[in-house]
Design a protein that fits this description.
The complex is a heterodimer. Chain A is mainly beta. Chain A has no helices and eleven strands. By secondary structure, chain B is mainly beta. In chain B, strands 2, 4, 5, 6, 9, 10 and 11 form a seven-stranded mixed beta sheet that branches. A four-stranded antiparallel beta sheet of chain B has the order 1-3-8-7, with no helix packed on it. The chains are: A mainly beta, B mainly beta.
Chain lengths: 113, 113
């Protein structure tokens, strides 16, 4: 059974600083997803990583995937207040469970001046 | 709006009552998923459909829960004899078979008092 763990669970950052959120998963995952969730809102898709070594960037966020280490990272560059949200990674076991996502606990990011 | 639509957005019910939620997926998406998210946690998979067939159910889906997708379009999730532990956000997502991405609706927040 696929298990997904994120760390840290809470992250308080100053504006302008860089930081990385880590996502470890327990067994082979067909692909790795990153989502953003604002309080009381649904999930917004940020990145889908499909293969080993995949790197995707959007604005101040960059996600990468190392399937051998079963590790994905979400790197935040020069944080701004608008990035404050909860970030989830999720894996997909594939096969007959294609499309069924297993989520991490989430990382609550707060960016302050 | 052509996204995933869920109704109602909020539901407050007394313990022991039955509730039903509806999800309208993105048009022509043949896969539909239900997730449950409790406060401070990541979403947990409940069940999914391919067209009208329910292909997988989580053990989280007790006998009090039933989901249907009678014509392969919209889906309903019914909870019978609600308990306080059922209080959560219920999220619906849809995708094409073979797609790398599922799109989430805004969710239905259930409060059992």
């Amino acid at each position: 059974e696929l298990k997904v763990e994120q760390n840290p669970l809470f992250l308080s950052m100053q504006e302008g600083k860089n930081y990385t959120i880590y996502c470890n998963y327990s067994t082979t995952s067909d692909r790795l997803y990153w989502y953003r969730q604002d309080p009381g809102k649904s999930l917004e898709s940020l990145f889908v990583l499909l293969s080993n070594g995949a790197v995707k960037q959007e604005g101040r966020l960059m996600a990468s995937l190392d399937t051998k280490a079963r590790l994905s990272t979400l790197h935040i560059t020069a944080a701004v207040h608008d990035l404050s949200a909860t970030y989830f990674c999720a894996g997909n076991a594939g096969g007959t469970s294609y499309g069924k996502l297993t989520f991490g606990q989430g990382t609550i990011l707060t960016v302050h001046p | 709006d052509t996204g995933v639509s869920q109704n109602p957005r909020h539901k407050i019910t007394k313990r022991g009552q039955n509730v039903t939620f509806r999800c309208d997926p993105i048009s022509e998406h043949n896969r539909l998923y239900w997730y449950r998210q409790t406060l401070g946690q990541g979403p947990e998979f409940l069940t999914y459909f391919q067209n009208e067939a329910q292909l997988e159910k989580s053990r989280l889906l007790s006998d009090r829960f039933s989901a249907e997708r009678p014509k392969g379009s919209f889906s309903t999730l019914e909870i019978q004899r609600t308990e306080q532990g059922d209080s959560a956000m219920y999220l619906c997502a849809s995708s094409f078979t073979g797609s790398t991405e599922a799109f989430f609706g805004q969710g239905t927040r259930l409060t059992v008092v």
